[in-house]
Design brief:
single chain, 7-stranded mixed sheet, 18 helices, 22 strands
């Protein structure tokens, strides 16, 4: 079992670096849980708060670009830019590349700072001059060992992904404090600031400080990969469309309205359509549903929603061309009370009352799909694309609203993806454990005598197949453009995707939703692939 020795958990940044190393080398979930639980016992409270924030997606903004970090590293290590690029493409991770290339630390390096110190300094440095930022980064590089530099660089680049889910962190906390996992998950949700929030008030006090905006943790469904007959009596299940949008919650408390995404981003100002609901919804409610484009009560393609995502300023033209609605399918809070433990059969009628009373186009009720038996529902499922849905959701009527992804009560029964055969024309090395292999590919279809690129994909093959493709790329490279290799257009793959939309940004004129490799078509030659016309016909059929 992977554990950390108690003396490794020194108070400070080196203790956090040891935790990250332990999590990165752990081979099982229980090992990671033990390491996290041990850390939450021994670390300083301020550092615990920041670890909770980091592992639940909160992190300070980057203070320097990738180019600047590379430049500062090269200056300190004396590494030529071309050599750094080669190392980066081999290692596949910027933070690790810099940590490996930097010279040994200064001999007198005995500094000891906390994790919270570094993160709060990064916040302070955000608006400082480049020279001040450089001095801070270089100084600490010179006073850290390789493991600490790696973690420090992860904080600098914002790419903090080390295989720890929020659910795992919540379970580790539940081992050490007198709160249930569901309460902890709710406490750490919402709009709290790790720089000003104390661990005591976040998790140890019986009643957390009032945060009227705080959302509930989302309940997530597992994919149904078996015959639904195995679920038993169809009368015990509620069926709904699985909408293609952004999962969200609309909350009204203290006569204020809040809109949250599943990624715990507060999006109230991004969707002014919902502001009218402030006067129409009763106080003390939390609705779970889907943020999707809609007009006259009918969903529109996800591509329309993409025109709104990321916009800081919403114009009248945006509101008119890309109207957004909230398709509500569950009620988590009613009259200020948490009703998640109530069965769906009780929550749903309350939701229907609230949506009907609001009577506003920005708030739609996600319909329940009536069906008598599983065979009938399977036929209905085939109509999903005509409804602009990804398939069906199946929810046990007697089930409570749980936290995270749990097996048994919620299932997503998606339709088969769209597919098209294409030829690989470009390849690039991957990242992480695949950083030494060509695993990121660009694909093309035929357009007369030409090949037109239309998508990229980097998942769907086995390790053995990735090794075979890598060997092909190395033997059949035609040109090199930085990390990208042009290869002989000979390997044919079936590309699967969930949707297709018109796009002015792509040479092909189309953009695919969730493209991935579904299989290697070794039985096909390059002249047998699909055409650009085939893609455009798919687009016509979807519109």
């Amino acid at each position: 079992m992977t554990t950390l020795l108690p003396d490794q958990y020194l108070h400070g940044f080196n203790g956090f670096a040891a935790l990250v190393q332990a999590l990165g080398t752990a081979t099982g979930t229980n090992d990671k849980l033990d390491a996290l639980a041990q850390y939450f016992v021994t670390a300083e409270d301020n550092d615990k708060v920041w670890v909770i924030a980091l592992f639940s997606g909160r992190r300070p903004r980057r203070i320097a670009s990738t180019t600047l970090l590379q430049q500062w590293s090269n200056e300190l290590s004396g590494t030529p830019a071309w050599l750094f690029e080669e190392c980066y493409h081999t290692v596949g991770d910027l933070a690790e590349t810099i940590a490996l290339l930097l010279p040994p630390p200064v001999a007198s390096a005995t500094e000891s700072y906390s994790l919270s110190y570094y993160l709060e300094q990064l916040i302070t440095l955000e608006k400082q001059d480049e020279a001040i930022k450089k001095a801070f980064v270089v100084h600490h590089w010179q006073h850290m060992n390789r493991e600490e530099r790696f973690v420090f660089n992860k904080l600098l680049t914002g790419g903090f992904r080390i295989g720890v889910s929020q659910k795992m962190m919540v379970n580790a906390l539940a081992k050490k404090i007198a709160l249930s996992a569901s309460v902890i998950a709710h406490r750490i949700s919402g709009n709290w600031d790790p720089a000003t929030t104390k661990f005591q008030e976040l998790l140890l006090e019986q009643e957390a400080p009032v945060d009227f905006s705080r959302p509930y943790p989302f309940y997530l469904a597992y994919a149904l990969d078996q015959d639904p007959q195995q679920l038993g009596d169809p009368g015990e299940w509620q069926a709904e469309w699985k909408w293609d949008g952004i999962r969200g919650q609309i909350i009204k408390r203290n006569n204020e309205l809040f809109v949250w995404s599943r990624g715990e981003e507060l999006m109230t100002e991004k969707f002014p359509e919902y502001h009218s609901l402030l006067s129409l919804l009763p106080d003390g409610v939390a609705l779970d549903g889907e943020i999707i484009p809609s007009i006259n009560g009918k969903p529109m393609p996800f591509a329309i929603l993409q025109t709104r995502i990321g916009r800081k300023n919403i114009t009248k033209k945006n509101l008119s061309e890309s109207p957004i609605a909230f398709y509500a399918y569950d009620l988590l809070e009613h009259e200020g009370a948490d009703i998640r433990e109530q069965p769906l059969d009780i929550r749903r009628p309350l939701l229907e009352q609230i949506v009907t009373a609001a009577n506003h186009p920005a708030l739609q009720l996600s319909p329940v799909i009536p069906f008598v038996n599983w065979s009938q529902l399977a036929e209905i499922r085939e109509q999903s694309r005509s409804q602009l849905a990804e398939g069906l959701m199946l929810k046990r009527r007697s089930a409570s609203y749980q936290v995270g992804r749990k097996v048994g009560d919620w299932w997503k029964w998606k339709i088969q993806p769209l597919t098209i055969d294409a030829v690989m024309i470009y390849a690039q090395k991957g990242h992480g454990r695949r950083s030494n292999l060509y695993t990121d590919y660009t694909f093309a279809v035929k357009d007369g005598d030409k090949l037109v690129s239309f998508t990229k994909a980097y998942s769907g093959l086995t390790d053995k197949e990735f090794n075979e493709v890598d060997a092909f790329v190395k033997r059949n490279s035609l040109e090199k453009f930085g990390p990208v290799r042009t290869v002989k257009p000979e390997l044919v793959f079936e590309i699967a995707f969930e949707g297709i939309a018109a796009s002015n940004r792509h040479k092909s004129g189309v953009a695919l939703r969730f493209p991935r490799i579904s299989r290697w078509r070794k039985d096909k030659k390059a002249d047998e692939i699909n055409t650009l016309e085939d893609l455009k016909k798919m687009l016509e059929n979807r519109s």
